[in-house]
């Protein structure tokens, strides 16, 4: 007997990109997102043939299970992050073209099924947006992401969150208010790219005054080393403090190479030492200046960048 098309293994695997996109936005971690999706598939294949045959939509079933796994992980993540060394920042992702197109590293390209290739880089995965999501309760985050980002109707969201559709509507509304309160209108990528380039040049030159001029006076920089590498454990606040800190760090690591790269769909910077990525920095603009910087140094969060690690010349020519 042939396998129904909707339960054919190849058809089921085609659901994985959507599941991974949902899970990454819910968890802010590609590693945890992969684990959540893998768990959903494991539970599907743990069903008996009769149980699988009774499922009307395997794709919807997988989404429900993956969503519930993410909801559980979000609850436990709060406890884990209380023990986290220093600040916790979402895991950064490289641009799809850089990941699969061989534009970085002299022809280095990842396999077609690499997870980072399948996470769509839009405004809903910008670092600023993910940080706002971190401020939500687990149920709020799941309801908001599933409804507002992926357009799932509230009755389906309710089946995942374990609340009534009306309660999920309220959760999503609350999440929406958080986003509106904290998320300024996005600056066009071209404008941000120019500012990030000037920032890079001033940083490389060790020009504290120029760096200060590119930062909002109340700018904040958050660095995430996870206790695995040295970094500042608390946010650095104020343009002067950030500039002095960055120039001090650059002076301590003379072999550091700064590259202009796309980070979570927005212009950012990557710092490499001997061709190995040691820091990925995401930027958020406040008007025509840099308002926030998130510098991820935890090597466990830089695995998606490993395929790009090789001594290269910056395409920008700097």
Quote the average pLDDT: 87
SSE-based structural type: alpha+beta
Taking the alpha carbons of the first and last residues, their distance comes to 62 Å
The count of helical stretches stands at 13
Q: What is the ordering of alpha helices and beta strands? A: HHHHHHHHHHHHEEHEEEE
Shape, please? elongated
Low-confidence stretches: 1-5, 99-112, 312-318
How many individual β-strands?
Answer: 6
Strand content: 5-15%
Secondary structure: helix percent: 40-55%
Order the strands across the largest sheet as they lie in space: 2-1-6-5-4-3
Q: Biggest β-sheet, characterized? A: 6 strands, mixed
Please explain how this structure is put together:
This protein has 318 residues and is α+β, with helices and mostly antiparallel strands. It has 13 helices and six strands. It has a six-stranded mixed sheet with strand order 2-1-6-5-4-3. A hairpin with a 2-residue loop joins strand 3 and strand 4 (266-273). Helix 12 crosses helix 13 (239-252). The longest helix has 25 residues, at 58-82.
